[in-house]
Amino acid sequence: MAWRIGAPLGNGRGCWRGLLAPAFGVLLLLVWDMTASAGLYARFILPPPQSVAERWWTLAESGALWRHTWVTLDEVLQGLALGVWAAFVLGYLIAKSRALASILTPYLVALQAVPIVAIAPLLIIWFGPGTTSKVIICALLVFFPMLVNTVVGMRSIPTELRDLMRALEASPLQTFWYLELPAALPVVLGGLKISATLSVIGAVVGEFVSASAGLGYLINFGRGTYDTPLVIAAVFTLTGLALTLYGLAAALERSLLRWQRAHAQQVAR
Questions:
Q1: What is the pLDDT of residues 27-44, one digit of tens each?
Q2: What CATH topology corresponds to 48-268?
């Protein structure tokens, strides 16, 4: 009886928690609208939400918003795929070889220490102002977090499990597929979620430096013409793009780790 009475209350609390984020967003919009309506700032500095919504709808209706969004999304997806793949492969090798880790770690840390905005102009010069340079910038930005998570995930596997695989005379491929990948997957997928959001930043940085299309180009164009509603509309679109990619990575994590949750529930019982 206690469980039946307590379960709806828990579900109710969960529903209320789910409404907190939208309610906070509505509150921010109201504060924004009241501040813009108070006349403290010129409309080109702080336009009201209605102006931004109208500008966004005009862009969407003309098709310009979708064209620029697709350009940025294409760069993001290519850069994310390249950066995640390279980081996972190199991270796996570093986790398996202490010598390789000693050789490469100082250079990888040094590369991460250099701000991406500082080397973005060089990449534009070397690879041109097209998609290739944006993809490389994006891949560099997502590379290090994914690399660190891969190394941590692989090194967190208990030694006893590795010894068991050796006792079973498992091949390196079998050890990777049946032990290393499943055991490291939670940490690796955490890195993927971080990389999914950083990939959007990488693409926009490249578009800020040199581009003729993309959401970063729209922001630059709006800044140059003092079209603040355009800038905010493009920023909101970028935010939605980043949230969508993060949500897809989180959904992939839930799907791939379903077995882990089922095992935890069985142990709890």
A1: 888 998 898 888 788 888
A2: MetI-like fold (1.10.3720)
